[in-house]
Amino acid sequence: MEAKLIGLGVETFKIALYLSLPMLLSGLLAGLAISIFQATTQINEMTLSFVPKIILVVVVIIFTMPWMMNMMIEFTTKILNMIPTFIS
Predict the structure, then answer these.
(1) Which of the chain's termini has less CB crowding within 10 Å, N or C?
(2) In this predicted structure, what is the pLDDT of residue 86?
(3) How far apart are CA 59 and CA 46, in angstroms?
(4) Residue-wise over 17-55: b if at least 16 C-beta within 10 A, else e?
């Protein structure tokens, strides 16, 4: 019983990591590109670093939404199907 719960917790963290990875990577790459651009041009505008990252993360969320929803639905279904095993 405890092994199933620990496995479920580990799987929960894995799914959270998989779901957040596309947004985190796109924000990281955009921030790196913007930082290099700011360093080479010596433009230190604060909005130049935030607005493109926000736009890129929103675009990535829109494109990965079907995949994220499928993962969440499968995980939720798996948890709901496991409920009877935890009751007995």
Answers:
(1) C
(2) 80
(3) 21
(4) eebeebbeebbeebeeebeeeeeeeeeeeeeeeeebbee
16 against 3, higher pLDDT: 16
Amino acid at 70: N
The predicted-structure confidence for 4-41, as pLDDT tens digits, reads as follows: 889 999 999 999 999 999 999 999 999 999 989 988 98
CB-based contacts of 11, cutoff 8 Å, min separation 6: 75
pTM attached to this predicted model: 0.80
- Report the sign of the C-alpha dihedral through residues 66, 70, 72, 76, in that order: positive
- Residue 26: partners with Cβ closer than 8 Å, 6 or more residues away: 56, 57, 60
